[in-house]
Amino acid sequence: MKIGFEDTPAAPAGTYSRHLAELLAEYAPEHEYIVDGARYKEFDLYHGFRPGLPLPLLRKIPSVMTVHNLNFLRYPHLYSLSERLVLLRLYRRALRSASLLITVNRDARAELSERLRIDPGRIEVVMPLAARVPHETPGGAQLEAVRRKYMLPGRFILMLGTVEPRHNHEVLFEAVGSLGERERAIRAEGLRAAQRAAAAAGPELPGLAADRDPGRGAAAATGRGGIATGMRGEAPADTAVRPAASSAERVGIVVCGRRTAYSDSLLEFARGRHMASRVDFIYELSPDDLPALFRLAHAFVYLPDAGIEASIVPVVEAMRAGVPMVLSDTQLNREAAGDAAAYVRPEAAGEVAAALENVLSDANFRREMKARERRRAELFSEYAVARRLIDIYSSL
Fold first, then answer.
1. Which of 22, 35, 179, 301 has the lowest tally of Cβ within 10 angstroms?
2. What angle do CA 278, 158, 311 make, to 5 degrees?
3. Can you give the pLDDT at residue 131?
4. Angstrom distances, CA of residue 309 to CA of 75, 266, 326, 337, 377
């Protein structure tokens, strides 16, 4: 079967079209994949990604159209009346002519059915492809090279995606800024609890003599080994701080995305909270460096508001890399990550901070999240997407 794809230099449709053709040629080589509009007469099936293109209408062949969103209907204030009318006419014509429609998630499927009254039986859901990256896990030398190239901190939280207010970067900054405060409060409360316990036990409690040792006292005063209790590093179960928790206080933030006016305001926001030294921006990232960037990160945070059109591709990439995730509690994120992430309200800095403390400090929690991510990432593998599409094509 000769399968034709939309031929356009415009991004992102053109990039996605070529990406898909390359993927299918690798995993389903029994068919021919053509990204050349001049050869449309050879097509046995056509797959388009934008409305208004005439190829599916020129010949009586099966056609598939992928619909990523209906933003002109969801956010009408962003479009003029004439733009909305033109887009509505183009979409209606394209959707009527297509043999089958593809959306990238169940929410988009429901919206397409409700807003344009499309029979749900004509709509299939195929998860989007993440960026095509080398399958090999980056080695130590490559990781170190990427760290030097972008001057990355030793431990950092990665926030990758569109740099705009509705992705709540400021909430992450506030959450990370509070990590040290929360830990110091926990330590102080633990010290007070230990002092109360010692006072209640009385001066003759066995073992207290050891606390009068100057060396032991110095260790207790600094809280070395978790929390100061004066009992050889042992801490009461209800006040103990996990050994790795102190690292949360020193973690940095790396924001990766195209530079915008909001990027500059974010830097000012960080300065106002005395966090500028802990925040780094990467405005131009080589796609080849993406796997290493994810593997260097100690956590991935993605906090788009529920009402915006966000991409799940960063979530898929994070799962592939096995980096623990803190995500906004939206239908889209849950559909992508399932039980492989910690979910928070994107506007709640306290919830983000609490989730990060678990992700950064609890080794058992990290191991469990990574195991879940590996299982979940299989749903988004290139092979799974390729076979799903071939099954759809073959059904037409």
1. 22
2. 140
3. 53
4. 10, 21, 19, 17, 22
Residues 6+ apart with CB under 8 A from 353: 175, 176, 178, 179, 182
Q: What separation, in Å, do the N-terminal and C-terminal C-alpha atoms of the chain show? A: 12
State yes or no: pLDDT of 193 exceeds 50: yes
Classify residue 14 by burial, with Cβ atoms within 10 Å: 0-12, 13-18, 19+.
middle
pLDDT band for 39, please (50, 70, 90 cuts).
confident
Q: Give me the pLDDT at residue 2, please.
A: 94
Look up tokens 């102080």; give the residue.
Answer: 188
Whether residue 255 sits in one domain with residue 234: no
Contact between residue 396 and residue 390 where contact means Cβ atoms under 8 Å apart:
no
Is residue 295 exposed (0-12), middle (13-18) or buried (19+ Cβ within 10 Å)? middle
- Let me know whether 200 and 336 are in one domain: no
Q: How far is CA 186 from the centre of its chain?
A: 30
Q: What domain range includes position 231?
A: 191-240
The CA distances from residue 171 to 59, 223, 346, 388, in Å, are 52, 30, 7, 38
pTM of the predicted model as reported, rounded to 2 decimal places: 0.69
Residues 6+ apart with CB under 8 A from 155: 247, 250, 251, 252, 298, 360
Phi/psi at 279 (5° precision): -120, 130
Lowest pLDDT segment from 83-97, 144-158, 243-257, 307-321? 243-257
Sign of CA dihedral 314, 318, 324, 329: positive
What is each CA distance from 284 to 105, 184, 258, 308, 312, in whole angstroms? 29, 37, 7, 24, 20
Query: Do residues 330 and 233 share a domain?
Result: no
Burial 45-79 (b: 16+ CB within 10 A, else e): bbbbbbbebebbeeeebbbbbbbbbbebbeeeeee
Q: Is residue 394 part of a domain?
A: no
Domain co-membership, 120 together with 230:
no
